[in-house]
Amino acid sequence: MVVKIIQVILSPVLALAIGVFFLGLARKIMARIHWRYGPPLIQPVIDMIRLFYQKSVSHGRMFDLGIVLSLAGSIVVVLFLPFGGIAPLSSSGGLLVILYVMLLAPLGMALSGGQAANPNISIGISRKLILSLGYELPLLLVLLAVMTRYKTISIVEVVSAQQSAGWAFISFPLFLSGISYFLILPAILGIRPFDVSSAPQEISSGPMVEYGGKYLALAHIEHAFVLFISIALFVNLFLGGAANPVIFFAKMLVVFVLGLCINAVFPRFRIEQAIKYLWKWPTLLAFLGLIMTLIVRS
Amino acid sequence: MSLETLLIIGFGGALLTYLVGKTSEKVRDFFGVAVSLFLVACVAYLYGKPIEKTFYFGFFGLGLVLRLNMLSWFFAIGISGLGALCTIFSLSYMKGRERTDFYYLMMLLVNAAMLGIVLAGDLISFYIFWEIMSWSTFLLISYNRGPALAAGMKYIIMSIIGSLAMLIGMLSLYTTYGTLNISEISAVIASASSGYILFILIIFSIAFGIKNAVMPLHTWLPDSYAEAPSPFTAVLSGMLTRMGVYGFLLIMYVIVGAASALNLGSGVFKFNYILAWLGAITIVIPTFIAMLQNDAKQLLAWHGIGQGGYMILGIAFGTSLGIAGGIFHTLNHAIYIVLLFMSVSAVQYRTKGERDLNSLGGLIKKMPIAFVGGLLGISGLIGVPLTNGFVSKWLIYKTLIVEGYPFLAFAALIGTWGTILSVYKFLHNMFLGQLPEKYKDIEKSPLSMQLPMIVLSLAILVFGILPGIPLKVINTIGTSFGFESLNITLWGITSDTGTLNTINIFSAVLVAAVLFWLLFRLGAKSVSVAQDDSYAAGAHTPADKYHYTAEFYNPLYRMIKPFLRDVIDEFYYWIASLVRSLAGRVRRIYTGDVGYYVTYIVLFLALLIFIQMRWKIW
Question: Would you call A294 an interface residue with chain B, using a CB distance cutoff of 8 Å?
Fold first, then answer.
């Protein structure tokens, strides 16, 4: 019981730390690719603390509550995701619940932003939702392939099955699904070339345009959680999770840096181009992966 | 309390309400609500008391039977409960309109007829109540005249086709077994050939498929939902359409029985497998069509079709989890769709009938209860965890995945993601975003509208956090069909292949939300600003509408619109126009002039004489 309580407290804190670290790292790596020096690694932390003490505007009750809802949703996902042996709530409904609780975060942001009558926000939200429909199509096929392969909807079972039988990423039918997930990862994270919904030069950060002060700080925290969740999900499903948090973190780091380096050099897609891309190669691979899985299973 | 009394109260109450309305409107309102509430109390009282009773012997030698079991009780409580809430909701909505007595008569009549359907113990009474329901629904759909007449006509034509199919099935059953009593038929039908059982299933599936709007029999639904008076649309979408689900359960698992119904055909060509795929198609296509709608009620109507697909998918799949999911989803869907239609009607009521999503907006501060209703409604519709829709969908997904049908599961899951897009647009364009100048002084909804919305909002949360309450009843229904019992706790389901525990999710969300709320309060205080005080990169904010809500998903529209024509509806219209032109030609012969008819008769006689002279066949 005590161990469980410690885990419940520990895992969101770790997730936040890793997510924030990734935010800093991303800026640094991007800067180096652009031949700049870049800000220090802890710049995101400095920004957040500073923002908390700055003035901000509110557009109403939903504007405040939406962002809280979104963060709460992210925390719950973190509690459901096994993190190198730490998995406090993972037995409460498995992957299906994770998939659905992951909805709370964008929904909360959309509700919060929605209350401010700013055209940039509604354009950003519209793009974000279209993009999420775009990547959900392959993502669902990928997750279904994994669940069908291991005949379970529990993510802990998926991890333990891989620990005895080897990583899913290098096993026969699932490597297709794994590649597909890796291809859509930048879209899930909303980083280039899929940063259509924030698009700072175009629609002034989209859904976040009205955020200032503590709202912006919380939005950054939310972003950190999203980074953690999407990469941790990949590590759990395809790289066999890990027996302890350190190895888990190492795996996450490799995935993140690889993804960042590949995508840092692309210019931004338009939303139609993004959808066309997502519904072409990743979907095709994921579809093949699922069919192969069905054939292998029967 | 006997079942006859219950129905007499239902039907008699409806007629009395009409008569009372002739004297005083106030008394009528009170009386109508009292009748509907009393029905709820009666049904609740009958919980867990199985009854089967023949109340009339004289129908051509066949007994008319009423019976109550867990299945009918489950539907009866849903019908009476939602019926009562919708009647209360109607009070202010219908105030000051014409023909209100007639409206209440029909509303209560539909309610009583639906109770009759689920309580019927033989197919004749089932059919009689079914027809009363269909016809009174037709009258209510066309209540507003104008385009509503066309919608009602479409409904009643499809409904009659369904009824005729059902009649053929009943006649066939009667000639084969000499009885139409449901329990008597179910005792003997197991020995019938599989071909005959298939015939019975298909012919009844046409009737119930039309009622439940399963693709390709769905075309009556969007227009009818949109054109009916809004409180009645709530009844129509909540329970009336779902009489189809009850019908499917009745024919597949009560009359034919699970053992025969799930083993017809072989491989992928099994009856229930094909039905499950129809359900899956019914989920995907309407959900994406819903995205294109700009009319709030049309949008919800298309979701009504789509969500019906989940029920059919779960029921047709035929595992204990699937059946439980399908039945539970019927209840959940009824709760949240009624709430959503109420939310729309509350807005309509205050904005003088506006339901175009492109011209509303920003009503959250003006109508907070309607907004909360809308928010919880769409959360249930999406299936956000901690709302009721999540649990039933979880049950269906889980059984599909674990049994190894990922493509069916994929259809069901992608339907959810399509739903998010359209319902966010629904909520955003009505309640969020820019408040138009003309709605600046709008008032919040009256109490008789708020009350049902609050009750339903609470129901969504309670069934989402403690799904064990309804699932216990549903589990009894499942076991009565011969499925194995599920391992149900108050907050979920336990099993080897994955457990659901909603109370864990609930506590986690609650604690996290409270913590972040505190963190939020700790930060520097924020200043409340007016809606037009927003960042526009230095540009001037125009006085009139500047917000981007019309064509909300334009990039996506452009990509998917060519694929989303309702081809089936067009096909039906093509048939209708064919029949009409045929009838037009026939009419040219029947001119109404006696001279022509005399000519026809003479010509016909001449033809007969000619034939006789030439071939001598008589």
Answer: yes
The three-state secondary structure class of A33 is: helix
Residue A192 structure tokens: 């280039």
d(CA B54, CA B72): 16
pLDDT confidence bin for A295, thresholds 50/70/90: confident
CB proximity under 8 Å: B 174-233 to A: none
Residue B457, phi then psi, degrees to nearest 5: -60, -45
List the single residue in A with minimal CA-CA distance to B556: A130
CA dist B547 and B544 (Å) reads 9
CB neighbour list of residue B56: distance below 8 Å, 6 or more residues apart: B63, B64
What does the pLDDT look like over B345-386, one tens digit per residue?
888 888 887 888 888 877 888 888 889 999 999 999 988 888
Tokens 């069934």 belong to which residue?
Answer: B463
- Residue-by-residue DSSP string for B158-209: HHHHHHHHHHHHHHHHHHHHS--BHHHHHHHGGGS-HHHHHHHHHHHHHHHH
Nearest alpha carbon to residue B417 among B246, B521, B320, B290: B290
Distance separating alpha carbons of residues B244 and B238, to the nearest angstrom = 12
Handedness of CA A264, A269, A275, A279 (dihedral sign): negative
Q: Which of A122, A131, A137, A280 to mutate to test the interface with B (most CBs of B within 10 A)?
A: A122
What six digits make up the tokens of B373?
């209703």
Nearest in space to B333 (alpha carbons), one of B405, B224, B237? B237
Q: Residue B472 corresponds to which tokens in the numbers above? A: 């216990």
Closest in B384, B406, B523 to A107, CB measured: B384
Structure tokens at B425: 């647009």
Q: Which residues contact B611 (CB under 8 A, 6 or more apart)?
A: B617
CA angle B595, B599, B603 (to 5 degrees): 175
Residue of A nearest to B362 (CA): A115
Considering only the beta carbons, identify the residue of A72, A141, A153 that sits closest to B410: A141
More confident residue, A201 or A16: A16
Number of folded domains that form chain A:
1
Q: How far apart are CA B209 and CA B247, in angstroms?
A: 9
| Distance (Å, whole) CA B362 – CA B491 | 36
pLDDT value at residue B329 = 92
Query: Is it true that the peptide bond before A193 is cis, omega within 30 degrees of 0?
Result: yes
User: How many Å is the Cα radius of gyration of chain A?
Assistant: 19
Nearest-CA distance A53 → chain B (Å): 5
A75 touches chain B (CB under 8 A): yes
Q: Where do we find the tokens 């005895």?
A: A164
The two three-digit tokens of residue B529, written as one number: 């600003």
User: Which pLDDT tens digit goes with each residue over A162-212?
Assistant: 877 777 777 778 778 888 888 888 888 877 788 877 777 777 777 888 888
- A52-91 CB burial, b ≥16 within 10 A, e <16: beeebbbbbebbbbbbbbbbbbbbbbbbbbbbbebbbbbb
Among candidate residues B438, B445, B460, the one with its CA nearest the CA of residue B392: B460
Q: Range of A82's domain?
A: 2-297
Q: Residue B528: list chain A partners with CB under 8 A.
A: 57-60
Residues 6+ apart with CB under 8 A from B55: B3, B4, B64, B65, B66
Distance from C-alpha of B167 to C-alpha of B203, rounded to nearest angstrom? 9
Give the integer Cα–Cα distance in Å for B25 and B459: 31
Rounded CA-CA distance B67/A149 in Å is 46
Q: Where are the alpha helices (DSSP H) in B403-482?
A: 406-431, 447-465, 468-480
Establish if A43 touches chain B: CB-CB under 8 angstroms.
no
Cβ <8 Å between A93 and B535: no
